[in-house]
């Protein structure tokens, strides 16, 4: 019998994925664990291996389509099977007793409140069963079964809820096409685009605005004439006037899934955090000397190259230990201090036109030695570029480092990676003429500009500067027993 190839669940909170590229064609021979297609989710881009050896049969989900976790995207045919076998197997009715067929768990409607809990069917697929069970049992604590409209909000992904909140939309008002009426990303973006195209019907599908005298003092004021418009996601601007005139020589290319994710996350961060950036110049001469003297032996002993990044991560960890507010998050009117120091490292991913970006995370970086940090940095960066990261390796970061200096950038003002409150930017590390020594002599030093973008809601300038002072001191006076001074 044909073997189903399904859209995998790439993380507990991920409910859907976009199939971006098929790496094989219908009729191609595939081996077990050979990469079959690429997907993009809210968390990670990844290559998905084949569940079995055989021939790729009918492709059911095309490139660019977004589908639910557990959806069959293709079939793997065994020896002697032909491409039509899978379709025939699906069309052939299974022997059953007379009477209406038992409904599939994935399409089950919420049971009435007075109905008894149905006996689950034998060996149902894991994800649909979990979703159906959640619908049957999700209540408000008094035994009430929520309506289908309420379930749309409960079962939607965090990304969908964020987009709805951003545009003031009640999810209950959006007709969902997902599992049991769940609102998918495609549904919410289509709804947003429809609202943008129909400005003459204010309030349709949006939260009702309270009268001005009833609004809470902290609520944002209405936009004044001449004020900049609230930024919207690229998809939300689908009905906007195009930025070119008829007859212009242009090429219109859809954003890649990764580019859309970056656009959504960056604009959301700008709207969420009060961004401020401070700059420090750091003398990296000591680190440069230690690296030069130890890089050959280090690579022979550890098997990885000694770059500047492990030194920078070590200094960052020292700064966080002294100023833990930089390792926190904002939750309503509360501050959540993170005990683990999980450092995200921004990695540029080459694409057809430019670069994409992904941020793998070094977990509990404060527990790693210089060798451990070097191994983790090299491993995550390599697997990020080859799309081998798991979802767990790209979320849970508590503070991030981005290194535009490798491309020659002198300095930058990076955008905070939500829900974090700070991101460290590293500029080009290069030799400069400086005034050195007690006699004001002129010398050549290896220096770099470091920037810290921080959320001014909870981090003040003095705190950020003290934090950067720790990083500067640790790098300019770096010591490590494993290195030859």
List the helices and strands and how they pair.
Blueprint: E1 3-6, E2 16-22, E3 29-30, E4 35-40, E5 45-49, E6 54-59, E7 66-68, E8 72-77, H1 83-91, H2 126-137, H3 148-155, H4 158-166, H5 185-197, H6 257-272, E9 275-283, H7 285-302, H8 309-322, E10 328-331, E11 334-337, E12 343-345, E13 347-351, E14 354-358, E15 361-362, H9 370-385, E16 399-402, E17 422-426, E18 430-436, E19 441-455, H10 461-476
Parallel strand pairs: 12-16, 16-17
Antiparallel strand pairs: 1-8, 2-4, 2-7, 3-6, 4-5, 6-8, 9-19, 10-11, 12-15, 13-14, 17-19, 18-19
Helix pairs in contact: 4-5, 8-9, 8-10
Could you please describe the fold and organization of this structure?
The structure is a single chain. The protein is an alpha+beta fold. Among the domains are: 3-91, RNA polymerase II/Efflux pump adaptor protein, barrel-sandwich hybrid domain (OB fold (Dihydrolipoamide Acetyltransferase, E2P)); 277-476, Chloramphenicol acetyltransferase-like domain (Chloramphenicol Acetyltransferase, 2-Layer Sandwich). The protein is built from ten helices and 19 strands. Strands 9, 12, 15, 16, 17, 18 and 19 form a seven-stranded mixed β-sheet that branches. Helix 8 (309-322) packs across helix 10 (461-476). The longest helix has 18 residues, at 285-302. Mean pLDDT is 79; it is low at 85-145, 200-204 and 207-238.
């Amino acid at each position: 019998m044909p073997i189903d190839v399904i859209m995998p669940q790439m993380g507990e909170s991920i409910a859907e994925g976009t199939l971006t590229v098929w790496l094989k064609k219908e009729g191609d021979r595939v081996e077990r664990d050979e990469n079959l297609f690429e997907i993009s989710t809210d968390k990670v881009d990844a290559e998905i291996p084949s569940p079995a050896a055989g021939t790729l049969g009918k492709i059911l989900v095309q490139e660019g389509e977004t589908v639910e976790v557990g959806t069959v995207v293709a079939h793997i045919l065994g020896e002697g099977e032909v491409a039509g076998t899978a379709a025939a197997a699906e069309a052939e009715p299974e022997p059953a007793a007379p009477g209406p067929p038992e409904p599939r768990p994935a399409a089950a409607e919420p049971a009435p409140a007075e109905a008894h809990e149905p006996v689950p069917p034998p060996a149902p697929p894991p994800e649909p069963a979990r979703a159906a069970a959640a619908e049957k049992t999700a209540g408000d604590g008094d035994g009430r079964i929520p309506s289908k409209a309420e379930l749309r909000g409960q079962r939607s992904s965090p990304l969908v809820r964020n987009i709805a909140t951003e545009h003031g939309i009640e999810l209950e008002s959006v007709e969902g096409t997902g599992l049991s009426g769940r609102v998918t990303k495609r549904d919410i973006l289509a709804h947003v685009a429809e609202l943008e195209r129909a400005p003459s019907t204010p309030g349709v599908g949006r939260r009702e605005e309270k009268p001005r005298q009833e609004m809470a003092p902290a609520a944002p004021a209405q936009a004044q004439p001449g004020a900049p418009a609230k930024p919207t996601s690229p998809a939300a601007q689908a009905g906007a006037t195009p930025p070119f005139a008829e007859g212009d020589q242009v090429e219109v290319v859809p954003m890649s899934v990764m580019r859309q994710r970056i656009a959504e996350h960056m604009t959301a961060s700008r709207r969420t955090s009060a961004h401020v950036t401070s700059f420090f110049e750091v003398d990296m001469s000591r680190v440069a000397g230690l690296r030069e003297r130890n890089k050959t032996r280090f690579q022979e002993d550890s098997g990885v190259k000694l770059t500047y990044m492990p030194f920078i991560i070590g200094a960052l960890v020292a700064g966080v230990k002294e100023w833990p507010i930089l390792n926190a998050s904002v939750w309503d009117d509360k501050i959540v201090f993170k005990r683990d120091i999980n450092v995200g490292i921004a990695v540029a991913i080459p694409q057809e036109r430019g670069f994409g970006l992904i941020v793998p995370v070094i977990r509990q970086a404060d527990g790693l030695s210089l060798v451990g940090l070097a191994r983790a940095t090299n491993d995550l960066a390599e697997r990020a570029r080859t799309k081998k990261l798991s979802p767990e390796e790209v979320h849970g970061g508590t503070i991030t480092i981005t290194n535009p200096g490798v491309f020659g950038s002198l300095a930058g003002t990076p955008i905070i990676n939500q829900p974090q409150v700070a991101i460290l930017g590293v500029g080009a590390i290069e030799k400069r003429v400086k005034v050195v020594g007690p006699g004001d002599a002129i010398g050549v030093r290896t220096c770099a500009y470091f920037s810290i973008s921080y959320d001014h809601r909870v981090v003040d300038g003095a705190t950020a500067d003290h934090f950067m002072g720790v990083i500067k001191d640790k790098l300019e006076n770096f010591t490590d027993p494993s290195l030859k001074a």
